[in-house]
Amino acid sequence: MSEATVEAHRGMARRGFLGGAAAVTGAALTGTASAGTASAGTARAAGTRGGNGAGTGPLAFTHVTVIDGSGAPPARDMTVVVEGGRVTALAPSARTRLRPGTRTVDLTGKYLMPGLIEAHTHSDGPETVVPALYALTGVTTVREMRGEPVHHEWRDKIRSGELLGPRWVIGSPIVDGTPSLWAADVGPTIEVGDAAEARRAVRRVKREGADFVKVYSRLSREAYFAIADEARRQGIPHLGHCPDTVRIAEASAAGHRTIEHLHALLLATSRHEKEIRRLLDAVRIDSRDPSSLSRYHSWFQQVHPLEWRAVRGYDRDRADALFRSLAAHGTAVVPTLSVHRTLELPDDVPTRAEEWKYLPAWQVESWPDQLAALIGGRTPEQARRIREIFAHRLRLVRELHDTGVRLAAGTDTGTGYLVPGFALHDELALLVTAGLTPAEVLRAATSDAARTLGLAAVGTVARGHAADLLVLDADPLRDIRNTRRIHGVVVDGRWIPPEERRRLLTAVERAAATTPPPEEGATMKGCGCGGHP
Fold first, then answer.
1. What are the start-end ranges of the E strands in 85-155?
2. CA 513 from chain center: how many Å?
3. How many angstroms separate the CA atoms of 467 and 204, rounded?
4. Which of 108, 215, 486, 533 has the most neighbouring CB atoms within 10 Å?
């Protein structure tokens, strides 16, 4: 390993495991320009406009089993016609008459479903890698939980056909109290100390083009409710972490659209809530510490005993009343079981995975040391308790669903071991482990996720809806792991068949392999959420 790479690893260890999908400076993007050109050339060779450009004229997928994302039973031997980025017809193949000149793709024995929606990401890396990985793994819509200018640039390029990638819903920088849990090494954070600053922050992020206000854990009550009120006035949703100072039921009533992760729910469903809130108020971080990694390590050490206390005091009646309130107010939950598993069951983290080849090797090699630095120092008893906490989170997911709370599938991609696109397929399997059926899980990643994100005509296979589709070789209703058995994808009307998909994935692999590590001192972008209660 070169001296420069070793030094980059040292820098990443200081800046943190939460750096997730590699922070890439302009130098790194320049270094992968040739791979990007190759990818665009492949798109042009396929007869498209490049990026997500749809082909000319109607395209019919025939004799396919349609799983429409609504929860309805699968419809067999169907024809789905796509034109101009929309589904224009959906009917049994035996009753379908195609216009002259319609191209056809025989999908006998295949399964067609809506493209997947990833509801919680912190995307960071080369534009020749990250956007394409989402699309090529069937993730056709992404919600970015810590928006930065690069995400808006990617979205513009995708819309213009210059870049292959998903639809992108982009949040604000994190809006937190002062001092924030996050240091400057993981990206922009807006700290607000009172109601006036909170209202200014909402107006600012709306001007900057954010689709929603991302709120965080250390906001004061005054600041949080000012954000909720100003967001309502400005017509922009607010969502994210429920602040430590605010009860979940209060936040839900104030219009909090989605609750991210399962930390706050442990507190809110415990008969020890008042005691734990008092102890949580006493938790301190060193605001002078420039490393988010060390801040979070300190935070974990102080908070995990409180989570254990909450789990030991779980109150099913209290949980049932809270969950019914969330359902009544339309507040959804994004469990992000993937990041919980990584941070809470480190012994179960794989030592190798096929999809890691789509990220720079220096990044993947840094993960074990970074994870150890973030969660290291646990005693065997602490590890046992945290494993039980994770099991309790799984039970909460099932109870949320059974009580009528809408769930949306999200991973917290941007944290180590979570590869863009691929991680969502693992999240679906975790949701089945939690007790949901494959059909319920597919809804959490399609129609229910679209509703959660406020997207119309996305997330179901229906006439007039977006032609974002995933074609599988095997039935995901029989085994949710079959969502990984991808035959081809339709991204905003563009059909990417098996051979082209393989070529594009090879181009992504080459781009990752030629991406150099960030220069020493470069800012590492972070997940911004991974482990806070």
1. 86-92, 103-106, 111-114, 116-121, 139-144
2. 24
3. 34
4. 215
Tell me the C-alpha to C-alpha distance, in Å, between residue 314 and each of 45, 115, 277, 288, 318: 58, 37, 15, 36, 8
Coil, strand or helix: which one is 110? coil
For residue 54, the model assigns a pLDDT of 60
The per-residue pLDDT for range 97-122, each reduced to its tens digit, is 999 999 999 999 999 999 999 999 99
This model's pTM is above 0.70? yes
| pLDDT in the model for residue 119 | 98
Q: What's the Cα-to-Cα distance from 444 to each of 59, 168, 344, 429, 447, rounded to whole Å?
A: 28, 18, 23, 12, 7
Question: What does the alpha-carbon distance between residue 94 and residue 104 come to, in Å, rounded to a whole number?
Answer: 14
Using a 10 angstrom Cβ sphere, with 0-12 exposed, 13-18 middle and 19 or more buried, the burial of residue 470 is buried
- What is the pLDDT, as a whole number, of residue 52? 67
> What integer pLDDT is reported at residue 4 of this predicted model?
36
At 256-309, the pLDDT tens digits run 999 999 999 999 999 999 999 888 888 777 667 666 666 666 667 778 889 999
Alpha carbon dihedral 362, 22, 493, 45, in 10-degree steps, equals -40
Torsion-angle region of 125 (φ positive above 0: left; ψ -120 to 50: alpha; else: beta): left
Q: CA-to-CA distance for 248 and 242, rounded, in angstroms? A: 6
Phi-psi region of 349 (alpha: psi -120 to 50; beta: other; left: phi over 0): beta
Closest CA to 119 of 47, 212, 37: 212
The structure tokens listed for 255 are: 């219009």
Compute the C-alpha angle 508/512/516, nearest 5°: 150
Specify the length of the chain in residues.
533
Q: Which structure tokens are listed for 425?
A: 């397929």
In this structure, the number of other CB atoms found within 10 A of the CB of residue 274 comes to: 9
Task: Say whether 83 sits in a helix, a strand or coil.
Answer: strand
